[in-house]
Amino acid sequence: MNSSSQRSGGNLFVVSAPSGAGKTSLCKEIIDFFPGLRHSVSYTTRAPRSGEIDGKDYHFVSRDVFDGMIADGAFAEWAEVHGNGYGTAIRTLDDAQAAGYDILLEIDCQGAAQIKNNYRQGVFVFILPPDLAELKRRLESRGTDSAEVIARRIDNAQGEIREAIWYDYLVVNDVFAVALDQFKAIVIAENCRTARILGSVAAEFGFSDLIENT
Ligand code: 5GP
Predict the structure, then answer these.
(1) What CATH superfamily is the domain 12-39+101-212?
(2) Lowest CB count within 10 Å: 9, 144, 180, 190, which one?
(3) What is the pLDDT of residue 213?
C-alpha cells in the first residue's frame, strides 16, 4: 500500500526508545515506506560511528558549535544523552512544515518532553523491547559498545521506560514485522485524522462554510 493519497503534511512524529529496542531499524523501514515522511537529522557532539555519514545520520558538530546553537536558541529541543549533546534544530522542523512533508524525530525522552510542551501537533510513539533480558541480549549482539557502555545503557533504559506512560502510542518490538505493522498503522491513522484532511474534503464537497465557523 502507498500512503501518498492520504497524507496532508505537517505531522510531527516523535519516537523514543531505550537503545537496543530496535527503534533505528523500525524508523528506517517506516521512512522507506512512506514517501511523504522524512527523517529529522539531529545535531550531536558524539563522534561518528563507523559507516555513519555527516549530514545524513547526524550533523556531527563540536561542543563549541553545539553550545553556540543553544545560546542562539536554534534548537526546538536538546538534551545530554550518554554524555553527549543531541538536538533538533528549529530550522529542520520549519523546513518540513514549509515543504509540506511529515517529519520523524528519533530522540530521547527529555527532548520528546520539550517537543510535547512546544509543538501542539506532535504524535508520540514509544518503542519497547519485550523485556530487559532481551534488551541486554540485543545490545550485546550488536557488538558496537563496550560492556561498560552496555551496562550504562541498561541502567538508563529502566528509567527511560517509565517515561512511556505519557506517550500517545506504545509499540512492543518483540516480532519485528508485527511491530512494523503497528507503527505503520499509527502513521496511517494519524494521516486520516479529520482535522488533517477536513479542509481539502470540505472544499471538494462544497461545505467549506461549515468549517470556517468551527
Ligand atoms: P545514538 O548515539 O545511539 O545515535 O543516540 C543516543 C540517543 O540519543 C538515542 O536515544 C537517540 O534517540 C537520542 N537522540 C538522537 N538525536 C537526538 C536529538 O536530536 N535530541 C534528543 N533529545 N535526543 C536525540
Answers:
(1) P-loop containing nucleotide triphosphate hydrolases (3.40.50.300)
(2) 144
(3) 61
pLDDT digits (tens, 9 = 90+) for 178-201: 999 999 999 999 999 998 888 889
CB contact at 8 A, 117 and 100 = no
- Which of 93, 87, 88, 1 shows the shortest CA–CA distance to 38? 93
Going from N- to C-terminal start, the domains of the chain cover 12-39+101-212
User: Collapsing DSSP states into helix, strand and coil, what is residue 77?
Assistant: strand
Shortest-distance atom of ligand 1 to CA 16: 12
Q: How many beta carbons lie within 10 A of that of residue 85, not counting itself?
A: 22
Q: Is the shortest distance between the CB of 14 and ligand 1 below 6 Å? A: no
Per-residue pLDDT, 212: 73
Q: Are 48 and 58 in contact (CB under 8 A)?
A: yes
In terms of pLDDT, which residue wins out, 95 or 7?
A: 95
